Amino acid sequence: MNPLQDYLKENLDLLFVGFNPSIRSAETGHHFANPNNRFWKILYKSGLTPRMYNATEDYMLPNIGFGLTNIVSRPTKAADEITKEEYQIGREELKRKLEFYKPKIICYVGKGVYQEFSRNRTIPWGRQENPVVAGMIDFVAPSSSGLVRMKLEDVINIYAEIPVLLRENHIE
């Protein structure tokens, strides 16, 4: 299976970083394509997007200042299939992408994504005090996977902090 295309451009307002593509995403060629994944619904309900997008419209996010990438590009059924070596390579690649594209806010879609990237284990939800790459805002949000045990409303409330951050930092 082929890795997914990143949707990146310089100076994005917000970059979403996932673990890696699901098998369904790899099959369709679109981010967060598994019907059980709530990513697109969460973006809309949290006020991040003006309407409900779907996975086939992922390429449109840069038009509203948002981007998509993953810490690991190889598709798997579950994140626990990702190897330590893949995470190591992914950390280096992600850091290069961030330094080159310079997004203002990076939203890590899943605490585990940020744990792997930052190498920190104790991480609160929301804005992080010390970003991995200076000059950027690191924001940790719950995974949008349907397997997450948090109530959808609680997940949406965490994501709803991002539009506030965008406004506070005059990013619109």
TrEMBL record:
Enzyme class, first EC level, given as a word: hydrolase
EC numbers: 3.2.2.-
UniProt keyword list: DNA damage, DNA repair, Glycosidase, Hydrolase
InterPro entries, per database record: MUG/TDG, Uracil-DNA_glycosylase-like, Uracil-DNA_glycosylase-like_sf
Domain Uracil-DNA glycosylase-like: 6-152
Pfam families: UDG
Keyword DNA damage part of the UniProt annotation: yes
Molecular-function annotations in GO: hydrolase activity, acting on glycosyl bonds
Source species, domain of life: Bacteria
Protein known as: TDG/mug DNA glycosylase family protein
Organism annotation: Cytobacillus eiseniae
